[in-house]
Amino acid sequence: MGMKMVMLEEGFLELSLDEYEAKYPGSLEKVVLATIYKEGGNKIDNDPADPGGTTKYGIAARYHPTENIAKLTLERAIRLIIEKSVGVNKLGELPFAVVMILIDSAMIPGPSFAPRSLQRAVGFSEKDVDGKIGPKTIANIYRDWETDRKSKRLNSSHSRASRMPSSA
Q1: Which residues are within 8 A (CB) of 140 and not within 5 positions of it... i.e. 6 or more apart?
Q2: For the residues 25-49, what does the mean pLDDT come to?
Q3: pLDDT tens column, 116-132
Q4: What is the pLDDT of residue 41?
Q5: Of 70, 75, 86, which Cα lies nearest the Cα of 1?
Q6: Does residue 6 fall inside a structural domain?
Q7: Which of 13, 34, 154, 158 yields a CA-CA distance of 20 to 30 A from 68?
Q8: Nearest to 69 by CA among 79, 83, 54, 80
């Protein structure tokens, strides 16, 4: 299977997943494929210490009890990952860079881990963490994203100013 490399242009971090997919079709599948490769690819893992049980393509039997893990195809694994992480969590509205992190982190401990961690990271109280990315989570992500961008611009400007020769 050949993969076309997608060049990331200036401003790609500001694009939502939906906008990025419209501009670069197939990008999401490439992120999922890279994560699957990192997870061991098509190797069937029966590690008794793994709470997910038998795993192939990063798909664990415990979290996918209706799937025949031994006969799982790569195409089906990609669809499952996208359905479990993107479909239920409105990831299309999130920045593409955040989606890449969420997909990667959802593979190890299970699909609800990444959204819960993200909610904690953007300031949700423990009682408000529900593992579902909805309007409040999305608003907090963009609030923090914009705050971080402004902070970096200020720090960058301050850093450049401090390196300028004094006029005295």
Answers
A1: 119, 122, 123, 124
A2: 85
A3: 888 988 899 999 999 88
A4: 85
A5: 75
A6: no
A7: 34
A8: 54
In a domain, 4, yes or no: no
Helix ranges, the chain (H): 17-23, 27-38, 74-81, 96-107, 113-121, 135-163
Length of the chain: 168
- Triad 84, 85, 90: Cα angle to 5°: 115
pLDDT number for residue 134 = 86
Assess if residue 3 is contained within a domain. Answer: no
**Higher-confidence residue: 152 or 154?**
152
Closest alpha carbon to 86 in 130, 32, 122 = 32
Domain limits at 75?
12-163
What residue type is assigned to position 87 of the chain?
G
Instruction: Give the position of tokens 């409105």.
Output: 90
Question: Per the domain annotation, does 1 fall within a domain?
Answer: no
Look-up of token digits 């479990």: 84
Q: How far apart are the first and last CA of the chain?
A: 63
160 has pLDDT over 60 = no
The predicted model scores a pTM of 0.61
Instruction: Pull the structure tokens for residue 2.
Output: 């050949």
With a cut of 60, say whether residue 73 has pLDDT above it.
yes
